[in-house]
Amino acid sequence: MSATTAPRVDVRSVASARPPAARHLPSLTGLRWLTAMLIFGHHLMAVEYFGGRAGDVWGFVFEAGKTGVTLFFILSGFVLAWGYKPAQSARSFWLHRAARIYPLHVVGVMLAVIAAATLVPEIRTDGVAPLGANLLLLSGWVPDWWQAGNPASWSLVCEAFFYLTFPLVIRLVAGRSARILWAVAAGALALVALAPAIAAVSPVPMAAASTPLLRLPEFVLGVVLALRMKQTAWRPVPLRFAVPLAVLGYAVSEAPAIPGTDIHPGLAVTVGGFALLVASLASADAHRSSTFLARPVWQELGRLSFAFYLVHLLVIASVSSAWPDGHPELHWPRAIALAAVAFAISLGLAWVLHRGVETRAQRVLLRFDPDRRGASRPARAVDAAVAVDAAVAVAR
What values do phi and psi take at 96, rounded to 5? Predict the structure, then answer.
C-alpha cells in the first residue's frame, strides 16, 4: 500500500503536526492477513471441525470472526482515501478497482461451481439468475441470493458498490472541516447501530449483514478517518489503547439489541474499535514507528489475503466433505490437523491465484487506463501519471 503526501493546509501549527510523508502503510497490509485469519477461524467453527469441549472453546473465540469483513470494509475506505489524488478520473479509478478484484472473482465463482457439482453440493446455486447476479457482483442486493455462486464473494458485492460511490463520497467529504468530518463519522456509527432496524422496516427487502447500502457506513468511516489524518493535526489513540478497544469491539459484536428494538449499539462499538485500530496502525507507519505487521512475512501474506479469502471456505468445505454430513466434529488434535490441511491447501491455492491470475490480469487491464494514455502525451500530464501510479499501489 502506498500513501500520498498530506495536502497543504492554512494553519502552520496544524501543518507541523501532520503525519510525515509516509510512502507506505505496511502495517495495514499485514492487518489484512490477520483479518483473513479471523474469518478462516469463523468458518472452521461454522463447518464444525472441532467437536466437544474444543468446539465450545473454538466457537467462543471465533463466533465473532465474521466481523473480519467489517475490518476489510473499513480498511478499504481508509486506504482508498489515503491514496486519493484529485487528478485521477473516475473512469481510471473504476478500472483500477475492477482490475484488482474482478478477474479473481470470476475464477472464484468458477471454483465454487466446480465444488458445488462435486464435493460440496450444499453450496449449489439454484437457477441462472442468482448465479449470474453473483458473477456480475449484484447478488447481495437480493437477500435470498446473498451467498449465490461463491459464498464468500457476497462481500465483493458490497465492495463493488463502495467503489462505484467512492468518487462521489470523496468529493463530498474531502477538504471539509474537522467538525463536519466528525459529524459524518458519528452519523456512520449511528447508521451501523440502526442497520438492523432499517432493514426490518424497509419497504424494499434488505439484510443488515449483506445489503451493500447498509454496509456503506463502515467504508465511509474509513474514508473519514484517513482524511482527518491527512488534512489535520489529528492523531488517533496510541496502539496500546487501540488494540484493547478493538478487542472489546470484537467481544461485543454479538451483544443483543436494546430491549424492544432492533438497535444494536454493540455493532457501533465494534466498528468504532476496529476503525481506531486501522487509524492507529496507519499513524504508526506514517510517523515511522515500526509494528510487527510491517515485517516482510506479513507483507507477503497480506498480499495473498484477497485470493485466500475467496477460496478458503471452498477448501474448508471440500476437505470436510469426507465426513457423511460434512461436519467432522473431531477431537481437538485431529481437528487441528485437519484445519492445518485446509489452511495449507488454501494458502497454496491463494499463492497460485495471486501470481497466476491476480497480478497478471491487473497488468493487462491497466494498459487501458485512460489516465495513463493521457499521461503518455506531452509533459503537461506528468502529475496525473504520478497520481495514477500512487492509486495503483494503494489498490494492491
Answer: -60, -45
Is 4 domain-assigned? no
> Which residues constitute the domain of residue 257?
12-395
Q: Is 380 exposed, middle or buried (0-12, 13-18, 19+ CB in 10 A)?
A: exposed
Query: What's the average model confidence in pLDDT over 276-300?
Result: 93
Q: DSSP assignment of 116-149, as one string? A: HHTT-GGG---SHHHHHHHHTT-GGGSGGGTTSS
Residue 353 is assigned to a structural domain of this protein: yes
Residue whose entry in the numeric block shows the C-alpha cell 469483513: 69
Among residues 17, 6, 15, 32, which one has the least CA distance to residue 277?
32
Asked whether the whole model's pTM tops 0.85, one would answer yes
Nearest C-alpha neighbor of 64 from the set 102, 38, 25, 27: 38
| Residue 50, beta-bridge partner list | 330
pLDDT digits (tens, 9 = 90+) for 294-340: 999 999 999 999 999 999 999 999 999 999 899 999 999 999 999 99
d(CA 263, CA 292): 37
Number of domains in the chain: 1
